[in-house]
Amino acid sequence: MALAGLGTAAALSASGCTPSGPTAPQAVPSNASMLDAFLARRGGPIGTNGQTAIAFRCDHHLNKFVANILPLHRKYSIPVTIATLSQMAAVERGPNGSDTVTFAQLQQYALENGFEIGNHSATHRDADSEARLREEIVDSRRSLAQSLPKLPIELFIPPGVGGTNYMGFNGGATLSSFSENPAGRLIMQEHALSTGTIRGFWSMTGEPLSNLGRGHIPFESLDAISRGRGYVQLARRQRQGTCFMYHPSGLNAPELAALEGFFEWCASERDAGRLEILTVGGLMTARIDSADRHDLLTAPGVGGPAWEGWNVPAGQWTQLQAEGQDVVRSRTPTAVLGRDFPLGRHAGSPRQLRVFLRSLRGCRVRLQVSDAGSPAGLDVTKDVVLRGSRDFVPVRQYLTLPLTGTDTLRVSITASTAGGDLDVRQPELLAA
Question: pTM for the whole thing?
Answer without folding.
Answer: 0.91
